[in-house]
Design a protein that fits this description.
By secondary structure, the chain is an alpha/beta fold. The protein has 2 domains: 106 residues, no CATH class; 140 residues, 3-Layer(aba) Sandwich (Rossmann fold), CATH 3.40.50. The protein is 30% helix and 23% strand. It has 7 helices and 13 strands. The strands form 3 sheets. A 6-stranded parallel sheet has the order 10-9-8-11-12-13, with helices on both faces. Helix 3 packs across helix 7.
């Protein structure tokens, strides 16, 4: 659930809790948030004793800031330092994506989400989709076959016959045809390639594809293939988890940005 959806659920009788400073070993970074109402909590600032005490504080003292030294004093051994700000929702300044907090800090409530485009809507993609939909990214699936475009798909995953107009940050290619996979590789390596390009496949497929792409004068070194870890099980859910792990680190690093100013 994104920030504005969460606001509509909790209403004005809630408190926004934001991590405004974080140093050393800590459960979440600056910008992490949760909304606390009398009967529910949406979001998380990291769990454990710090979050438990922040929830209790939200329901009693509300506005202000509180510092946490993550040591024996609160039965945590992270060793870091976290400062949390508490703001009643009714007092929030919601002018744009940046929210002005009472302390004078500005919080980026909804950071831009990187776009992952997946070519192929087969078994692995269907297993990948609900995992990826829970991540702080946008997901677009491109599938040429009518019956495979049919649902069910997670509501936050866009499924279409052709790629959208937005330039993807990362592309994962795994269609039902190796010839189509190669064609999409050529497409993305002609001109300015995405920042990450991966193709599911074996070592032999990787060698053949890279040789063909070099023959075409294309930068085959930009292609990640094989992609993912060999986990000893080739069932779609296991492969999907491996692929998601492979793509998330580069994908999020492209959009790393401070959420507190």
């Amino acid at each position: 659930m994104d920030w504005r959806q969460a606001l509509s659920v909790v209403g004005d009788n809630a408190v926004l809790v934001v991590v405004v400073e974080a140093m050393g070993s800590r459960p979440r970074d600056a910008g992490a948030w949760m909304l606390v109402s009398p009967d529910r909590v949406i979001g998380t600032i990291g769990g454990g004793a710090m979050e438990f005490e922040s929830i209790a504080h939200s329901r009693t003292s509300a506005a202000g800031t509180r510092a946490f030294h993550l040591g024996p004093g609160i039965d945590q051994c992270c060793g870091g330092y976290v400062e949390v700000e508490f703001v009643p929702v009714a007092e929030l300044d919601l002018g744009d994506d940046w929210v002005l907090l009472p302390s004078g800090r500005r919080w980026l409530a909804q950071p831009p989400a990187p776009l992952l485009r997946v070519h192929g809507g087969g078994h692995v993609t269907r297993a990948l989709a609900p995992l990826a939909a829970a991540m702080p990214i946008r997901v677009e699936v491109v599938e040429s076959r009518d019956d495979w475009r049919a649902g069910p798909w997670p509501t936050d995953v866009a499924v279409s016959e052709r790629p959208g107009d937005s330039r993807p940050d990362a592309v994962l290619i795994m269609t039902h045809e190796h010839s189509a996979d190669l064609a999409w590789c050529r497409h993305y390596l002609t001109g300015e390639p995405p920042r990450w390009l991966g193709v599911i496949g074996s070592d032999s497929k990787a060698v053949r594809f890279k040789n063909r792409l070099r023959e075409d004068g294309l930068a085959s070194d930009a292609l990640h293939c094989p992609v993912g870890e060999r986990l000893g099980d080739k069932s779609p859910p296991v492969v999907a988890l491996s692929l998601l792990h492979a793509v998330m680190t580069p994908l999020l690093s492209f959009h790393s940005t401070s959420r507190i100013q």
